[in-house]
Amino acid sequence: MLRLHFPNRPAADVPLNDGLCPVVRHASGQILAGVSAVGMLLLARFCLDGRGLWLQVSHEGVQVHVNGRPVRRMAIVRSGDQINIDGQDIHILGRHPDASSQAGTPALLRGYGGHLHGRAFALDRNWVMGSSAQADIVLEDKSLPALFVRIQPQAGTIDLQVLPGGEPLLVNGQACLQAALLPGDQILLPQGVRLVVEAAQALRPLVQAAEPPHTAATSTAPSTPAVGSGFTCSWLLLAALALAAGLTALLLFGPR
């Protein structure tokens, strides 16, 4: 279950259920979430539906940032995102990536933010991330270990493990050294590098196989002439002869 976490103040996490969750400013100046907006200043709304989790900004005077990037009207957010609304930090926490999770479907790792933004890595093999050129995915932060994290798909699961010497990293906003990943999980690395596990969609074939040409059946029965075909041709021939005779008579015996 997704929930909102306030990291810089002692407050209980706010669970996100289907529907709207308002974020308001109390008369005391404190920013609250999941309470009635009656009599308070509405700052933003979280909307959870079948498409995912959306963040809607209520008006232009509200300063909203998602993972350090400004949002003017609306943004789609996911577990592990860090949001700031008018100076209040709110983290979206997702499920705890425990060892009982099973992916079940092919997946890929897609970069959102940082120097890996836009890149994708198919999770059909092992991937090792680190600052060394020997790593499969080279991280620009040279303060990280040469071999930092290993992601290993095996037997229906996608295992993430921080290698010896590495610090815990955030998966769905929760610090861990080892995790079993599912599509939708987000990994946060230093320098704002974010990696999201996505389900791989099978590509539709661009060209469909053409059907084999049908062979026309050859009839062995003798052909039968169409009834009345010769009769019709005779009438046409007689009509043409009569028309020609009429034109000839008109030319020979007509008025001069």
Kindly describe this structure.
- The protein folds into 2 domains: 92 residues, Tumour Suppressor Smad4 (Sandwich); 93 residues, Tumour Suppressor Smad4.
- About 10% of the residues have low confidence.
- The strands form 4 sheets. It has a 6-stranded antiparallel beta sheet, with no helix packed on it. A 6-stranded antiparallel beta sheet has the order 13-12-22-21-18-19, with no helix packed on it.
- It is built from 1 helix and 22 strands.
- The N and C termini lie far apart (108 Å).
- By secondary structure, it is mainly β.
Beta percentage is 35-45%
Spatially, the strands of the biggest sheet line up as 2-1-11-10-7-8
Q: Mind summarizing the main beta sheet? A: 6 strands, antiparallel
Highest CATH level, the class of the largest domain: Mainly Beta
Shape: elongated
Task: List the total number of helices.
Answer: 1
CATH topology of the largest domain: Tumour Suppressor Smad4
Tell me the distance between the termini. 108 Å
- What is the number of E strands? 22
Considering DSSP H and I runs of 4 or more, what fraction of the residues is helical? under 10%
CATH architecture of the largest domain: Sandwich
Contiguous runs where pLDDT drops below 50 for at least 5 residues: 202-227
Assembly form of the protein? single chain
Rg result: 37 Å
The domain count comes to: 2
Helix/strand order: EEEEEEEEEEEEEEEEEEEEEEH
The whole-number mean of residue pLDDT values reads: 82
Helix vs. strand class: mainly beta
